[in-house]
Amino acid sequence: MSEPVLEVEDLRVDLRTPRGTAHVVNGLSYTVGRGETVAVVGESGSGKSVSVLALLGLLPSRTATVTGRAALQGEDLLTMSKNRLREVRGPGVGMVFQDPMTSLNPVLTIGRQLAEAVRAHGESSKAAARERAVDLLREVGLPDPDRAVDRYPHQLSGGMRQRVIIAIALANSPALLIADEATTALDVTVQAQIIELVDRLQEDHGTGVVWITHDLGVVAGIADRVLVMYGGRCVEDGTVDDVLERPAHPYTRGLLGALPDLAEETGDGEVPDLATVPGVPPPPTDLPEGCVFWPRCPVRSDPRCETEQPPLDLVGGPLLTKGDGLPHRAATWCREGDDRWT
Amino acid sequence: MGGYLLRRVGQAAVVLVGVSVVVFGLLQLVPGDPIRLALGTRFSQETYDALLERSGLDQPVLQQYVTWAGNALTGDLGVSFRSGEPVTQLVLERLPATLTLAFASILVALLIAVPLGTLSALRPRSVVDRGATVLSQFGISVPDFWMAIVLILIFAGTLGWLPSGGYVPLTEDPLGWLQRLILPAIVTGVVSGSVITRFVRSSVLEVLGQDHVRTAQAKGMATRQVLGWHVLRNALLPLVTVTGVQLAYLLSGVVVVEIVFAWPGLGQLALQSVQARDYPVLQGAVLLFALVFLVINLVVDLLYSVIDPRIARR
Amino acid sequence: MTGQPYPEPAASPTATEAGREPSLRPARPRWRETLGLLARNPTAAGAATVLVLVALVAVFDQQLAPEGPNEISVEDRLQPPSTEHWFGTDDLGRDVLSRIILGASVSLRVGFTAVGIALVVGTLIGLLAGYYGKWVDDVLMRFMDVIFAFPAVLLAIAVLAVRGPGPTNTAIAIAVVYVPIFARVTRASVLGVREEVYVRASRSVGASDLRLLTRHILPNAAPPIIVQTSISLAFAVLAEAALSFLGLGTQPPNPSWGLMLAEGRGYIELAWWIAFFPGMAIFLVVLCFNLLGDGLRDVLDPRQRTAMGGGR
User: Fold this and answer.
1) Which residue of C has its CA nearest to A269?
2) Is the pLDDT of residue B184 over 90?
3) Given an 8 Å threshold on Cβ–Cβ distance, is A274 in contact with C3?
4) Which of A224, B94, C263, C300 sits at 20 to 30 Å (Cα–Cα) from A274?
5) Residue A204 pLDDT level (bands cut at 50, 70, 90)
6) Which of C3, C8, C9 sits opposite A184 (nearest CB)?
7) Do C312 and A45 touch (CB under 8 A)?
8) CA dihedral A95, A101, A104, A109 (to 10 degrees)
9) 3-state secondary structure at position A11
10) Fold held by A6-223
11) Under an 8 A CB cutoff, do B289 and C151 touch?
């Protein structure tokens, strides 16, 4: 692995809500290398979106408290000045949001919105910015980019809008691209196109990618490494192969147990119901003592489950860690060999 | 775009026909003989006959309406029962003063509402926000004629800075025109501005929470630019329609304020014609007010469709 | 919500209730709940208290007023506020406080009558327009647009010019102005609930239009109408004062706040209290109705209610 683009250490986010303080992210650590894709997986409410919004200072400052360290190419995002942070947004980190229908300003042409991204970071001439906008649209595969620049968002399909948003995110060749549920709102064929697009751009530019999703099918197709989030914590991380084929945390196993066979096409394009882990995530205002997952855990094999949060430890040992040397870790008291663990 | 325009104009035309029926009906609803009421006790039979002939009140109602509406379309609204002057001329003389006051009031309202509403939205629950909420609540609740009297007392009476009322044409005395415009415009503007402030606040708050604002921030734009181009532009779009609705209230305020400030507009004319039982003049003033409302509203709607690309191309 | 791996917590109590028993009326009047929430909103509760006090004053005005409305006393004319005349006396030596107390019933009676008429007529029109749609909607709402095209006060002036002054005609004139507003609010609200599950369910089991309208649609469309009623009361009181001020509403020598203002206007530099205190009375009542309306909106707004109930 080359020098990391992003190093997140012990990230914690508290949000003040009318119902008390919500501990949304509770000590998250991970790294993203150059050209590497890390998928952050979890159900809604697991804190995955908040954890990346916090990196860019996009949470409401009146209610959010962010601690920890998040170094982008060695520079801590969490302590930098507002002005420096503004400079980093764009050239440092590009971001693609979930809903292409609402993520673009409805009353400005897409060309203008692209040009803004370019002009916010140095380029001063309007004509040059427009030219760059056309180039970017061409790069993300928008048909007829010369005319498309003058269109308004509502004149484009969802997939095309998401391409525009990706173009905006890539306008300043960021070192890191964060995609927050970037394909969730799109239908399956468009999803595949967008994933392919990000894959290609990543190869061309060597961008590090954080891909946030709850869709394990997407993860398998795109990620190098996977981080499973639950209750604002990382409960398991490792390479795609390790996590998807040899899941060690009961939660991950629950998610995967419901995963339809990847080779098997679901005819109607509907994502089948993945809810095989009964119950809902704990409210971040009222996290359980002990392991965050124990109230829903089907195993609960250890007396410490209800009293002590398990640390993120290496799984299995050398036998299960394949030759690439990347660690596979899980935060659970359950271990292989337990008779209830099958 | 063309279709939209045509539909809006068509709707306005339908409403205008309805307006004409209501205005025409006013005279029909007067109990007794409106000409006799207007002329009082001392009049010659010739005057009476001439007015009856001119107003056509002895004809069947439907025919009266057709004649009246036909004449109105050609710009003939009959003659005053009192002076015998053409109503059209009487009301058109008053129109510029009313329009001046109406536009000045809108200007004052927006100058209050946009900055105050935006500031409140940017710092919800702050001192500025709470202050603005209290002020706008006061502005909505204060009787406009009372505020007018108090302002006259302070600025014309005690301080002696401004005249207490009246009107001079802009072309004759620009300074005097402005001096006499300030207080009436402030009174109507403050009331409408208070309503619009609350609207701007909620509108800006809503836009601030929208995803595209986050996109704009995420691409590294300066806060000032995000506010100006992304937030305000979106937030002020619906404001255009609200200003249209506000116009009805604003014009209503203009009627009252004109009377208190002796501003020689349509509102003052309307009240004078009521007092004089000069019904054709009242009809003319009411009709013209409705026409002003419809035209401004139509312009506002079309303006809206020009600013908002989503409507223009529907 | 196909992409969600786990079902979200139930969105709103209404939704689940409606889903479980579609034939039941989902929103029973939650008067107690509403009042409870309102009581916890200090501004609205304060405004309601003041309004109740004003209403009591209006009811017991004869007992409360220190002097009769038209007790003229030349030697007492234009007296500034004092312990004897709290709000001073006017140009005829009449006690301003007494006249304000006696004027309260006029203002409130005209206001309530006007809003009552506008509420009944406007709601009916809005219900029909929203429920039947199509040409019924077009005709009714275009008619409302026509009334809306006239500046409110001017239309009221015109109605009074035709029908003559006086409290009843004033109430009618103000009602005419407010009918379109109630019609619009009701129609918008009806459109919102018309396609709800419980309405469609009742329709599918053959409930009559009348039953649907009165048992299902109206109760669920009511919150915005209630809010509008409070706000309209504010403006009706204001409009009565304005019309009386212009000499078209309540006629002298009856005490009315707007009329007192008009009478005091000529003495404003000599005796500010004659016009000032009636103005304050109007302002106070209008402000309280507006604040109450705001409080009701906060309480009755379904979005806010679900936000309090739980779920994110």
Assistant:
1) C2
2) yes
3) no
4) A224
5) confident
6) C3
7) yes
8) 140
9) strand
10) Rossmann fold (3.40.50)
11) yes
- Report pLDDT digits (tens) over C66-116: 776 677 777 777 777 777 777 777 777 778 788 888 888 888 999 999 999
* Domains, chain C, with CATH or none: 61-72+84-308 (1.10.3720.10)
Is residue A96 within a helix (H) or strand (E), and if so which, with residue range?
strand A93-96
Do the strands A233-239 and A313-314 form a parallel or antiparallel pair, or are they unpaired? Answer: unpaired
Determine whether the interchain pair C162/B267 forms a contact, defined as Cβ–Cβ distance below 8 Å. Answer: no
Question: Is residue A293 within 8 Å of residue A255, measured between CB atoms?
Answer: no
The DSSP call for residue C213 is: I
* Distant-in-sequence, close-in-space partners of C303: CB < 8 Å, separation ≥ 6: none
Q: Give partners of A (≥3 CB pairs < 8 A).
A: B, C
Q: Which fold has domain B91-313?
A: MetI-like fold (1.10.3720)
Q: Is the ipTM of this complex over 0.90?
A: no
pLDDT band for position C286 (cuts 50, 70, 90):
very high
The rounded distance, in Å, linking the Cα atoms of B198 and C297 is 14
Q: Is C210 exposed, middle or buried (0-12, 13-18, 19+ CB in 10 A)?
A: exposed
CB contact (8 A) between residue A275 and residue C7:
yes
Residues in chain C with CB shorter than 8 Å from the CB of A272 are none
Is A171 within 8 Å of chain B by CB?
A: yes
Residue A218 to residues A164, A211, A221, A249: CA-CA distances in angstroms? 21, 9, 5, 20
Q: Does A185 touch chain B (CB under 8 A)?
A: no
CB-CB neighbors (< 8 A) of C7 in chain A: 275, 280
Question: Does residue B187 carry a pLDDT above 90?
Answer: yes
> Cβ contacts of residue A45 below 8 Å, gap of 6+?
A280, A281, A284, C312
Residues of chain B in contact with residue A103, where contact means CB-CB under 8 angstroms, are 211-212, 214-215
Question: Whole-model pTM above 0.90?
Answer: no
Q: Are B111 and B103 in contact (CB under 8 A)?
A: no
Token pair, residue C95, equals 């006690």
Q: Say which DSSP state A50 is in.
A: H
- Smallest CA–CA distance, residue B231 to chain A, in Å, is 9
Q: Where does residue C273 rank: exposed (0-12), middle (13-18), buried (19+ CB within 10 A)?
A: buried
Classify the C-alpha dihedral A121-A125-A129-A135 as positive or negative. negative
Closest-CA distance, A255 to chain C, in angstroms, reads 9
**Cis-peptide into A60, omega within 30 deg:** no
pLDDT one-digit tens code per residue, B126-174: 888 888 888 888 988 999 888 998 888 888 888 888 888 888 888 888 8
Residue extents of the structural domains in chain A? 6-223, 230-261+273-330
Q: Measuring CA to CA, which residue among B252, B210, B203, B209 is closest to residue B232?
A: B203
Output the pLDDT for position C119.
Answer: 94
Do the chains contact at C154 and B285, CB–CB below 8 Å?
yes
Chain A residues with CB under 8 Å of C9 CB are: 280
Selection from B158, B150, B182 nearest residue B263 by Cα: B182
Interface test with A, best of C1, C6, C8 (most A CBs within 10 A): C6
Q: How far apart are CA C137 and CA C145, in angstroms?
A: 12
What pLDDT digit, counting tens, does each position of B247-280 carry? 777 888 888 899 889 889 898 999 898 888 888 8
Q: Tell me if C6 and A274 make a contact (CB, 8 A cut-off).
A: yes
pLDDT tens-digit readout, A92-132: 898 888 887 888 888 888 888 888 888 888 767 888 888 88
Residues of chain C neighbouring A259 (CB-CB closer than 8 A): none
Per-residue buried b or exposed e for B60-79, using 16+ beta carbons within 10 Å of the residue's own CB: eeeebbeebeeebeeeebbb
Tell me the domain boundaries of chain B. Answer: 16-87, 91-313
Cα of B87 to nearest chain A Cα, Å: 46
